[in-house]
Amino acid sequence: MVTTLLWVAVVACMALGFLATVVPILPGIPLLWAAFLLYHFGINSAALSASFWIAAALVTVALFAADFVANSLFVRRFGGSKAAAWAAIAGTLVGPLVLGPLGLLVGPFLLALVTEIVRGRSLREAATVGTATLLGFLGGALAKGVLKLVIIAWFWIEALWR
Description:
- With 162 residues, the chain is mainly alpha-helical.
- It has helices at 2-19, 28-42, 50-77, 82-99, 103-118, 123-161.
- The longest helix is centred in the last third of the chain and has 39 residues, at 123-161.
- The chain is elongated, with a radius of gyration of 19 Å.
- The two termini are 23 Å apart.
């Protein structure tokens, strides 16, 4: 009975952790770690290899970096200045604090847009750079989705066949 409940909790944490890729209000990384730790301490402490734990830690770092890197790359790719790229990163951090989950989209957009206008770009050019932050968000979400699928698949391979 307890094992069944633990398995339900593991699957629920993983599903919600993956769903957090597109629903930023959910704490995706902590949910994935909760699934891994519930399994390790509640079901089978020997199944997950050291390689898995190292990979999970590296994927965690990559997941944190994905939004920042994607926003910065897209801003630069669409002609934005270094200042706008940094503003987009700042918007990724500050936006959710001010606007909640919507801030992940609006924060980088607004800060990159305003930065480019202050630097003397036209509204149209600044809007193009701001729009690049939205593409950066989508690119970051895609990267995070792939990374999460990889570590989740690795978990299931080790949990079920090791």
